[in-house]
Description:
The complex is a heterodimer. Chain A has 19 helices and no strands. By secondary structure, chain A is mainly alpha-helical. The longest helix of chain A has 25 residues, at 314-338. The two termini of chain A are 38 Å apart. By secondary structure, chain B is mainly α. Chain B has a single domain (22-84), classed as Up-down Bundle (F1FO ATP Synthase), CATH 1.20.20. Chain B is 80% helix and 0% strand. Chain B is built from 3 helices and no strands. Chain B has helices at 11-54, 59-67, 70-84. The longest helix of chain B is centred in the middle third of the chain and has 44 residues, at 11-54. The model of chain B has no long low-confidence stretch (mean pLDDT 90). The interface between A and B is medium-sized, with 13 and 11 residues.
Amino acid sequence: MSVVIGGPAPYVYVCTRMRVRKSKLLPREEYLRMLNMSLPQITRLIEEMEYKKEIDELASSFDGIDLVEEALSWNLAKEFQAILAITPGILKQFTKSYLRRWDIQNVLTIIRGKKQGMSAGKIKEVVVPAGSLDVLFLDRMIAEESAERSIEMLKNLPLYSVIEREYSGAVETGSFGRLENELYRQFYADLIEEARSGLKGGNQFLKSIQLDIDIRNIKTIFRLRGQPVSGEETADVWIPGASFSVDELKRISQVETIDELVDTLRKKVKSPALVDALEGLREEKPIHEVENSLTRAQLDYMDRLSKRNPFSIYPILVYLEKKKYEVTNLRALARGKQANLPAERIENYLVI
Amino acid sequence: MVDLGVATLTLEMVAESQMGLKALGAGLAVGLTGIGAGVAEMGIGSAAVGATAENKDIFGLALLLTVIPETIVIFGLVVSLLILF
C-alpha cells in the first residue's frame, strides 16, 4: 500500500491541476454555439481545443465523423492515463480502482465483438483504453482467435472470476446482459470494500461510490417503468451497497404512479441536490431527459463536495466524470449533426 | 578548598548574559518565522506549481502568491533587528 511521503503537498498539487483542467472544460454557452454549426465547423473547433494532437495524429487514417469520434476517445484515454500518472499514493489507488469500469466496458466490447464476428480493426476503433488494461494488452486480446482465448488472458484480474462463472450461460442464452450486470455488481462491491478498508480518505471515496450507485439504480428504476417485468426478473440489475437494498429496489420498481415513486425515493435519498432533481421528475418525461437531469444532479453534487473537501478524491473524480461527459456530449453533437437532427433535439441529449 | 556554591556575578558578566539572551531571542524570531513561512508556502507552492503546469500564463501571479508568506519572516527579521540594536 503506497502512502504519500512529504505531507499534503502532492495532494494539493494534483487537486489544483484537476481544478484547472476542470475549468478548461467546455462551458454551456460553447455547446449552445456549437449546436448551430455544421459538422466540419465542429471538427475544426474541436481541433482548436485540447483535442488537436489526437485529430492531427488520426487525420491520416480516419475522416469525418469517425475522426471526431476516434480523436475524442483517444484523448479521453490519454487524459485518464495521464491523471493516473500524476496522482499520489492512496488517491492513485482509488483513481485506479475507479477507472476499472473502463476495463469492464472494454472487455465486454471485445467479447461481444468477437462473438459477433466483427473484424479486429472495427473492435479496436470502439475500445477506449482508459482503464488499467493498456492499449497493448487490449490489442493482444483483440488479436486472439476466439473470445475464449481472449478471456484466458484476463486470468490474473479481478474480472476473471465473474466472467468465468457467467460466460457459459451468456453464450447459451446469446445475451451478455447478465454478465455485464454481474461485472458491475462485482466492481461496485470491490470499490466499497476498498473504501471501507480503513484507508485515509476512504469515507469520501465511499460517499461518491454510493452516490454513483444510487444514481445508477434510480436510472434503472425509471428505465424499467412502464415495462411489464416482475420483480424477480430484474433481481440482478440492482446494485446493492448504497441507500437502497436490493429488496427495496425490487419493491420500488413495482410502484405504479410517478408521484408515489418520487415520494418513496425521496424518503431514502439524503443529498439535497438529488432531492431537487427527483422533484423535477414528477411529470412524465422521455427517459433520456430523466437520465440527463439525474446525471446533472450527480455532477453538481460531486462538484459541491469537491469544493467542500478541496484536497480529497473528489476533485479528481469530478474531473474524470465531467471529462467523460464532455466527450459524450461532443460525440452526441457530432453524431446528431451528421444525422441532420434539429438543434433542439440534440440539445436534449447533452449533459450541460 | 574552593567553595563552588557561591559565585559572584560581576557587572560585565550580567551585561554579557543579557546580550546572549537577546541574541537567542533574535535567532528564535527569525528561525521560527522562517519555519512558519515554510509551512505556509508548502501548500501554496504545490498548488502554484500545479496551476502553472496546466496554464503557463499564470506563472507570475503564482510566484507572487507563493512568496506572500515571506512577510512573516520579514516581521521576524524586523523584530530580531529591534532586539539586537
